[in-house]
Amino acid sequence: MRAPLGDFDVVRPAPEALDLLVAPVADAVRGWNGPVPADELIHVDTDPAWADTATFVEHYGPELLAQSANCVVVAGRRAGETTLAACVVLSATRVDVNGVVRRQLGARKASFAPMDTAVGETDMEYGGITPIGLPGGWPILVDAAVADLPYVLIGSGSRRGKLIVPGKVFAGLPTAVVIEGLGV
Questions:
Q1: 120: helix, strand or coil
Q2: Is 105 domain-assigned?
Q3: Which of 35, 66, 81, 106 is at a distance of 20 to 30 A from 148, taking alpha carbons?
Q4: Residue 52: which pLDDT band, with cuts at 50, 70 and 90?
Q5: Distance (Å, rounded) from C-alpha 90 to C-alpha 99?
Q6: What is the pLDDT of residue 121?
Q7: Number of separate domains in the chain
Q8: What share of the chain is helix, strand, coil (3-state, %, to 5)?
């Protein structure tokens, strides 16, 4: 099998790579009922040493940058309450935390969640967090540019491996909100 983008040695439909996925992502793939069949979620095996975006595109090809997205965990605070959310933006952009995210969450203050919170709450590895398999009630804010791509390369829940999925998958996640200008 060939990946729909990039040149990877080991490519499998995610349902055939459950052993390589962290528990919440594997559970999400097992119970998948998204806008495309689960077999269209593709797992590519990659070296965890190259998981971060800059080293990943340096090793696997700079053309992947335009088709890669990052999923970051943010915390919005208002009146002593904290709301965790995920933001999915193109890798070449950054999340507008203090503008778009803060307003969308109705928060007085918003910031990136601390690493231990992001990892502990998602049961995923830092640098590999993906919106597929996040806790059920979390808002998932998706930049419209990500949802518009035919295919998107994103973390798989661990630093080893990536998922390649149609962009429309992110818009179809149960708690997803597609937002213009989330990534700046």
A1: helix
A2: yes
A3: 106
A4: confident
A5: 17
A6: 97
A7: 1
A8: 30, 25, 40
Task: Give the pLDDT of residue 159.
Answer: 94
Q: Is residue 68 part of a domain?
A: yes
How many beta carbons lie within 10 A of that of residue 68, not counting itself? 24
CATH of the domain at 92: 3.90.960.10
Average pLDDT over residues 132-159: 97
Domain around 23: 11-179
Residue 90 lies in a domain: yes
Q: What is the pTM of this model?
A: 0.95
Query: The tokens of 15 are what?
Result: 């349902």
**What pLDDT, in 10s, does the model give residues 90-130?**
999 999 999 999 999 999 999 999 999 999 999 999 999 99
Return the SS3 of 176: strand
* 78 beta partners: 81
Instruction: Retrieve residue 99's tokens.
Output: 């503008």
Gap between the Cα atoms of 156 and 131, Å rounded: 9
**Summary mean pLDDT of the chain:** 95
Question: What pLDDT is attached to residue 113?
Answer: 97
Domain membership of residue 107 (yes or no) is yes
Q: How many CB atoms lie within 10 A of CB 3?
A: 18
Cα–Cα distance, 51 to 145 (Å, whole number): 22
